[in-house]
Amino acid sequence: MSQILFRLDRRVKQQVRTLRRRTRDKALAMRCQIVLLADKQRSRASIAESVGCSVSWVQRVLRRFRELGLSGLYDARADNGTVKLDEHYLLLLYQTVDQSPRDYHYTRPTWTQELLAKVMAHRIGVKVHRSTMSRALHRIRARLGKPRPTVGCPWSKSRKTRRLNELQRLVDHLPTHELAFYVDEVDIHLNPKIGRDWMNYGKQKQVLTPGQNKKRYVAGALNAATRQITWVRAERKNSLQVIALIHKLVDEHPEAGVIHLILDNCKTHHSKITQAAVTALDGKVKLHFLPPYCPDGNDIERIWLDLHANVTRNHRCSTMSELMSDVYEYLRNRNRTLQRQARKAA
User: Options 3.30.420.10, 1.25.40.10, 3.40.50.300, 3.30.160.390; which CATH number does 157-194+209-345 get?
Assistant: First the structure.
């Protein structure tokens, strides 16, 4: 039967329209719209397509409206009992997702929705279906992603925190005519790093690799105030590259009384030749070392991630010179963009 035999009284129709206009409940407004469309003798399939639901749901809404009138449009799930996904449940779920199934004596190292539902039932005594767990994960904005490998810092948590706070205070309260930079090196590989990309259904993009890999190294210094980046390139990752970057910073900022460099504990930063080069500058440059294995404390790491995402990942350069040209162009464009933004803000 393509048409729905449905006719509303004028007074009832006005009540449904008023309810649709005033309610903040989108589901209730949709049910009102279904009733109003049915009054126009629209087919079930046409109504379902218009409001974006199934034909069976249209039938249920109209059946409840015939039986109960205006009250049949309201959500009938209030009689289902207490709400399971309350704030307490979602808070505990948020904490559980941050942990591992092994913390709850399961051998599996990763979470599934079924296992989360089982653990939550044990923790709080509330059993939910896998589909309900899916909605709960969506509500706490959990996502299925790839973890980042890290190495634990050998320092105590308090010692690490104190050191990071000291470096942050240095950046936030720099004396006049002093500058601070975050320093680190990045490896550029001719063999591209493979990353996710959009591709059509049934097809898989191919990234041609040169085969024999080549490497170049870029040492960068990120200005903590302006976020501009200064860099030097080298074919080898050694102390000479670090010294070249230090001399470039000194040459570019002759007005700076002291240049503070915040950097990790790479052996090229601690080497005797690097320390001798810094000493020869008579206090012009001071080195401040992060806690061991603490990349999150170095702001320039974010720049390198963006560099890989915008240039090196899935790249199709056949020569190292072509790839390095793209790297330099990306860094120059980034600096130019920051300069334009600074001029507009001034």
Answer: 3.30.420.10
